Amino acid sequence: MINNKCQIILDKFHDGNGNVTTILQDMQDTFGYIPEDAVDWFSKKLNIPASNFFGIATFYDEFYLKPRGKNIVTVCCDTACYVKGAENIVAKMRSDLKIADGEDTSDDGKFTVQKGSCVGACSIAPVVTVGTKTYGNAEADKASDILKEYE
Ligand code: FES
After folding, report:
1. What fold is seen in the domain 71-146?
2. Ligand 1 binding pocket includes 24 (Cβ within 6 Å)
3. What's the mean pLDDT when you consider all of the chain?
4. Atom of ligand 1 nearest to the CA of 81
5. How far apart are CA 79 and CA 142, in angstroms?
6. Buried-state track 71-93, b at ≥16 Cβ within 10 A, e below 16
7. Spatial CB neighbours of 106, under 8 Å, sequence gap ≥ 6
8. Which pLDDT belongs to residue 39?
9. DSSP secondary structure letter of residue 3
10. 6 CB less than 6 Å from ligand 1?
11. Residue 117 in this model has a pLDDT that exceeds 90
């Protein structure tokens, strides 16, 4: 199945002015992340070292090398939110979801918890976003209430 999806991306690449970055963008759109198998497949088909793909994929924040959660939870950790305890919210959510050190996604694939930058809502800091929904004046003690909405 991965081969079929990669072939579609490759056909598009040959039809246009594609490059490694556009292939990565298509992989991300298709799979939700950059699967190692897909990189190997393109590496062999195009005779481009896999390191070229991974070099770009690790340089840009928009690319993910691991599957992401169904719900992306972003806790703003810029100054206004930080001083109001944003890091505690991150810690509580990670703990509630049993996300291992070095990981950002729950084992069941339901949530990815990440730190984010200012979203321009400092007056209601600390701010948490889940998808397109924004939660202001968030509190670590009530972090699980936000998560429960998406269970
Ligand atoms: S610093 Fe968090 S919304 Fe501005």
Report:
1. Glutaredoxin (3.40.30)
2. no
3. 94
4. 2
5. 21
6. bbbbbbbbebbeebbbebbbebb
7. 69, 97, 98, 99, 112, 113
8. 96
9. H
10. no
11. yes
The residue among 117, 88, 121, 93 whose CA lies nearest residue 105 is 93
Separation between Cα atoms, residue 151 and residue 141, nearest integer Å: 18
Quick check: CB of 79 below 6 Å from ligand 1? yes
Question: pLDDT band for position 6 (50/70/90)?
Answer: very high
Ligand 1 neighbourhood includes 121 CB (under 6 angstroms)? yes
Which sequence spans correspond to the domains of the chain? 2-59, 71-146
Distance of CA 106 from the midpoint of ligand 1 (Å): 25
Which residue has 């929904």 as its token pair? 133
* pTM of the shown model: 0.81
